[in-house]
Amino acid sequence: MEILKTDILIIGSGIAGLSLALKIKDLGEITILTKKRAFETATSLAQGGIACVMGEDDSFDLHIQDTLIAGDGLCKRETVELVVKTASERIRDLINWGVEFDRDPENPNRFHLTLEGGHSRRRILHVGDYTGRVIENTLLKKVLEAENIILLENFFVVRLITENFLKKFPRVIGALALDLIQLKPVIFLTKIIALCTGGAGKVYLYTSNPDTSTGDGIALAYQVGCRIANMEFIQFHPTCLYHPKAKNFLISEALRGEGAILLNAEGKRFMHKYDPQKKELSSRDIVTRAIDMEIKKTGAECVYLDISHLPSDYIKKRFPYIYEICLKYGIDITSQPIPVVPAAHYLCGGIYTNLWGQTDIPNLFAIGECAYTGLHGGNRLASNSLLEALCFSHQASLKIRKIWDTLKDQPFKEPTLKDPPIKEIKEEKVFISHNWDLIRKIMWDFVGIVRSLKMLNFAKKRIEFIRKEIEENWSGIYLDLDTMELKKITIVAELIIRSALQRLESRGAHYLIDFPNKKKEYEKETVIFKNF
Ligand SMILES: Cc1cc2nc3c(=O)[nH]c(=O)nc-3n(C[C@H](O)[C@H](O)[C@H](O)COP(=O)(O)OP(=O)(O)OC[C@H]3O[C@@H](n4cnc5c(N)ncnc54)[C@H](O)[C@@H]3O)c2cc1C
Fold this sequence. Notes:
binds flavin-adenine dinucleotide, alpha/beta, 532 residues, 15 helices, Flavocytochrome C3, Chain A, domain 1, five-stranded parallel sheet
């Protein structure tokens, strides 16, 4: 098997992976592996923007409070303070790399700040309604220009290699990846690994996430013994475009921030019944459950988001991307309400990390959506996630610099484990695609917006059955992305269900009808790890 050596290995080419690479590129040779094309990330799809205290009427305390309220009693205060207080430095990093945020048309010396659900002040910096695409392209350009950074597309990491599998937290010494173009396995030996693999929306039937979001990093870290936390907190975005031909198109929260209202199938506003004060600007979990309830009550397939009362020119200028895409599907948002439904959007939990982005294994880092830092608690405040990824890539860069002094002169460790045979799928691929569909449907129907113990136990049995079937029929490593991703989503689905079954209360994004209220004893994270 081909063996390549690189000083530091980063897995993922979204905001977390790219910004980390740029921060540590002077240390040695950095290799970024990404399983599809580099821009195929959740980062590229981000519309709303990044939260940062900048307005005169705003303060750190207000942003901290808003984050804690959305997190519903589960945020780690020190993480929230760190992220909120260093936000302007991280925005400065982005500006220095070349991101040009929109300016206030009335005062071009200032940035235009928009409002989103759960925020008590205007504090979201943005570039039109395609902020993520601009960030991704800008960082990618910088990475491609950097001499020390090698970016390898279509390399899918299937396994982390540790020095001694029997030790409790063995050091990682490399990763086994599949080169999906040349169809061959490659081992990357390295001294530090950063998992920047994004979220896991694809575990659900309906999601705003890109195809790359299959929770691989979480499965990889779990398999080498790292703690995984708060997996029950899946944030469902309240408003994804409902159209038979639209795949996962999100209608940004910023529309509601700018005054869009929600209407049920009877054309009536309803948010005042669920949150009389904040109405459409309530936090995501409340808006999502309200929509779910209205859809179930009226028997309709969707609700509607209406911004058509605002001037047409303003809508086109402020939301050019959403306007264009909706028009493509025959919906003119300047004159018609937009049909919307909720969809799985963001994973608040993930790989347990400290304030330096370090996992339980000291030379294994996890950054961005795959990590659990304690920032989001039970529910993420809108536009805090790009910021979290930036903040923790910076934190990780500081720690990596520190440990690099002791690691840089050490030789690469050769893997002691025998290489597993690489197999090829022999039977019809329908077995794989069927299990994919089944898992995503089970998760949507039984581990979704509103859950019950009966539903969770039902889902647990079914997913366990699928896992066993996969182990019996497709154990080992296959040169096939769908098969290997299927194994990852099965692990992640099980982790979500096991976490949900541990939290016998309703809090944040986890709503359990058997226990509709919060309970004091659950004011802590749900932690799962693999017992070897
Ligand atoms: C539609 C949408 C809109 C959003 N809007 C906002 C917003 O306005 N503001 C905000 O703050 N947040 C927003 N978010 C959330 C935010 O975009 C994500 O949380 C963030 O971009 C995650 O960045 P990341 O670098 O962690 O992961 P990603 O950007 O998803 O990158 C993950 C990378 O890992 C790679 N990868 C995964 N597994 C493997 C593997 N096994 N081997 C090799 N490579 C692998 C992928 O190919 C990809 O390159 C939005 C998300 C979506 C989906």
